[in-house]
Fold:
Amino acid sequence: MNRLKLLGTTTLALMTGISPVLAQVTEIGAPEGQVNIVAWPGYIERGETDKAFDWVTKFEAASGCKVNVKTANTSDEMVALMNEGGFDLVTASGDASLRLVAGDRVQPINVDLIPSWKTVDERLQNAPWHTVDGVHYGVPYMWGPNVLMYNTEVFKEPPTSWNVVFEEMTLPDGKSNKGRVQAYDGPIHIADAAQYLMFHKPELKITSPYELNEEQYKAALDLLRVQRELTSRYWHDAFIQIDDFKNEGVVASGSWPFQVNLLKADGQPVASTIPQEGATGWADTTMMHVDAANPNCSYLWMEHSLASNLQSDLAVWFGANPSVPAACTDGRGMSTAESCTANGMDDFDKIRFWTTPVSNCSQGDGACVPYYRWVSDYIGVIGGR
Amino acid sequence: MTAAVEFQNVSRHFGPVKAVDGVDLTIAEGSFFAMLGPSGSGKTTCLRLISGFEKPTGGQIRIFGEDVSNTPPHLRNVNTVFQDYALFPHLNVRDNVAYGLMVKGVGRSQRHAKAEEMLALVKLDGYGDRKPAQLSGGQRQRVALARALVNQPRVLLLDEPLGALDLKLREAMQDELKALQHKLGLTFVFVTHDQHEALSMADSLAVFNEGKIAQIGTPRDIYDRPATRFVADFVGSSNVLPPDLTRALGGPAQWASLRPEATRLAATGPVSGTVTALRYLGSGTRVVIRAGGTEIAALVPAGQPVPTEGATTAIAFDPQALHLMGAI
Amino acid sequence: MTYPAILPAKGLADRLTGTFWRRPGLLLLLLIAPPLLWLGVVYLGSLAALLLQSFYSIDEFSGVVKEEFTLKTYAELFRAQNLDIIIRTVVMATAVTLACAVLAFPIAYYAARYAKGPWKAAFYLGVMLPLWSSYLVKVYAWKLILAKEGILGWAAEGTHTSWIIDGILSVPFLEGSSLSTSPFGTFLVFVYIWLPYMILPMQAALERVPNSMLEASADLGATQSQTFRTVILPLALPGVIAGSIFTFSLTLGDYIIPQIVGDSSRFIGLTVYQLQGTAGNTPLAAAFAVVPILIMLVYLSLAKRAGAFDAL
Structure:
């Protein structure tokens, strides 16, 4: 119920453009001794999974703040945990961050108290998924593209278009792509189809793949129905996709650098590319709870998240990109210019980041198809309708 | 006259256990034949050999002259009344009785009419619509009987048919079964461990012991002239005398039986002992005397003096009543 | 020396036992009150909340739940794509239940009537063992077995029987690039996962059929197949129904297996999960969740009419 009310409030707030401005912290006091963070699995490592990946131990020693982590597996779980309270920080994705802002669950961040703020990628500093009316509600954490992963034995040259997963065709190995490609098993994949149409059907006048009017939306669904014929299974779990590339003869699919890196490490013949149409992507933000009990440790952690080895090592660990570009090259961690390039660091401009589709969009109030319809219609498409 | 059932050297061994071991047996057509014995003596296995639920490991079984050793139960023209009745709980009484006709493909109205006829025969008219669970033990027994008779078997097998009934009902059913057998003229073979039941109902009976037949004969034969010490022990309330006692009483050195009603008390005699128990029976008093290592019962008719417990008395008997027999 | 007719109560336990003896209802009440409360409040309460939600609707424009009574959400169930999901799920549950019943019967029959001593223990172990390992592990293992380059495909190639798999995969509605991406694969995994829930009640029911019942049937002239149809099956039916309630309702509600094995087509459980979890469309999720309940009620009343519970 809370979640629903929240969704309602979110939409309402977006509709009316109201955003609460709250008092923000003006100075950092004495550390409280701990900080409680809701995070994606694998986001906050203290060397327990792999000794080489640790960006917590030194922080605890230096700041005196013990880091407590609660992992969450979906954006909805994160929102629910923040609603319950008891946490200081959350690593929210673009489809959760605005809900948290509109629901008054997070507070504005005083970037003056975070010395490394100026090192954050300028393109992320004012990103719309954490900045509302010029007020910052968080510190960028990590971002990544949804790349096109392909089998290098089938594709001697990287595919230049997403058409290999959207339209029936003969692949370079002389066989059809039918039954050999995959697509993401989430309604947000409609945006990938819309992005493809943006490039190939300019007459539809799509300006953002997350803001589709009825006509544009219908065209995207039609494209996805063609894709249904080609796809023997949709993927939603990274490890299932890895298995499908190994054992099911899948040769091309939208994917994350995470899977690409794991498969490569396993000696599988795969590579990834961002085709001419561009790609969708995700960007996460560290946000602070409105009633955070440990604001001082929270600020110290946010600074740590930008200044330390965290950005550099996490980028390698997760197959993602740092929000601080210098982390790729200044040797603070394991990232190198090459590894960042592999994860899509250079492709920022080609990426359209995930946001929750709402009905009141730049095309006008009520002009766009809202997310809940994306969900039910995508169910229909996968079911062969 | 052909025999209804004939066993020739029939055995049924379960591994090392010889449940039935080299049995020869002839059951005359139209007779009421009892198989008597303690549990584990092979009597039930013999019945199951006739019905076909057991296959003999040796020998030959004939039913009305035909060798049935390789005939499955459903093709044998014999039917069984089971010890637990084995009524089908999901069918009503009428359908239970008509079951044998149904599996033979007899039409509904015809088999129902026949079932009602059978229910009338066992005095259960009007009970057709009930479920077995709604009947008393005696009523279930009758249904089982009607169900077994509906196929008009040439031999009816009854496995401890009255075992689950109380005494009064049991006696009434004994008479009824006997009357029914007379009326139908069928061969009845029934298994029991109750010697009174076997003696009072059967035309002839076989006493089983450890997989073999200890004795076959009429009830009178078996009661009066038990062939072995086991039969005497099991069938009657007879005194079983060991060889030395028989000799002391004036007979040869052999096992012998002596019925209590032929045993008298006397002031003096070759064998005497102490009275250890008295039981008043109405028609007389049963006196148990301990002589040597053996207990001997004597029946003192009503009106005659009865000794007290602990008294010493001698034993006398009618010499013709002393019956000599085999050791086993 | 004389002894009293009534012994003195030694302590609280004696007095309590006495109280319960004098008022047998009290103990019963004490024993069943907690589970009844649990059932009443937690279970029926949440069921009522679910029903209530299903009569709300989501505002098309803003996506907010409108807390007003309407049948609109139920009408949405009849949209083609949603009807697809319901039919797909019911067909799958029916097929899984039938297959489980056919597979389980001989196993249960053997275990109930023939297995003795150590064999019985081995049977229980064999049936229960798969229940002890993680459900997810089993499903992932099946994904590997059924994969295009998995054990089954490899074995079929080695024995030149690939045409069987290809044949199955070319049947309409069962198409896929491999068994693991075909609805037939989903079916196989469902059957495997739920089979123990069919075997155990069936075996319990068969065990209660006395041997003499079967002998009586043969004695009265029934062939083995007649005995099976007219005696064994009706007497085992309550067990079969109990087992089928398990397999049927578990398949109706499962949302994990279709995510891992199959062609990603939605089943009711997965749809509820997604509608509620990511779309925030709780009314439609609730309406979908009511469907299995209704189906089970229909199923049970049909079973009752067919006489499934007569032998109880």
Notes: The CA atoms of residues 253 and 269 of chain C lie 5 Å apart.
